[in-house]
Amino acid sequence: MSKKDGGECTEKVRRYMEQQNRPYSVNDVFMNLHKEVGKTAVQKALDQLTAEGSVREKTYGKQKVYVFSQDQFPPLDESQLQEMDRKAAELSATLKEKEKQLCETETQLRQLMSTPTTEEAHSKATQIEEEVSRLQQKLSDLTENRVLVSKEERDKVVKESDAMTRQWRKRRRMAMDILDAILEGYPHPKAQLYEEIGIETDQDAGVTLPKV
């Protein structure tokens, strides 16, 4: 390596140590510079910088650690240090708050992703309402016309009606939970939301949820 190349390597290592201002081993510097400077060249540069006083060397067992000499920086008075501590505390508090908000947002997102969309819930509820209405009408026709049917057939119809009613109630509750979640951040009345997304309530459809 020429003196010019060696000087460039040393300057690159010096700039890096000054910018980072934290302890590193030779291998740390070599890897963090993305191997732009050979490991041997990094060692020579650190040795030279240590000899010049730009870098301090500490030995921990068999490991040598290097850090930029703090004497190279302008001195800080007590008020500056206090201000830096205050800003550090503020940033730490802000970071904790942002992490908390991120965690809450991720939880809400997982919940929303696991539930059907408003459109899907509304479509399913409409289908169930139509099926329940059909079965109720069928049961009403059988009752009014006094059509003789077997106990098994009647029980089957009642069972299907009850099952559909339970599904209606379940889907209605899911739809209302989703709508309530939306309304928490919606700036207008509930009626306006229903109108905007095309929600038709039981009252609008003229139906009443029967008791199972």
Automatic annotation (TrEMBL):
GO terms for biological process: homologous chromosome pairing at meiosis; meiotic joint molecule formation; meiotic strand invasion involved in reciprocal meiotic recombination. GO terms for cellular component: condensed nuclear chromosome; DNA recombinase auxiliary factor complex. PANTHER family: HOMOLOGOUS-PAIRING PROTEIN 2 HOMOLOG (PTHR15938:SF0), TBP-1 INTERACTING PROTEIN (PTHR15938). Transmembrane segments: none annotated. Residues 10-68 form the Homologous-pairing protein 2 winged helix domain. Keywords: Coiled coil, DNA recombination, Meiosis, Nucleus. GO terms for molecular function: double-stranded DNA binding; recombinase activator activity. Belongs to the HOP2 family. Residues 150-206 form the Leucine zipper with capping helix domain. Residues 81-152 form a coiled coil. The keyword ATP-binding does not apply. InterPro entries: Hop2_WH_dom, LZ3wCH, WH-like_DNA-bd_sf. This is Homologous-pairing protein 2 homolog. It is found in: Nucleus.
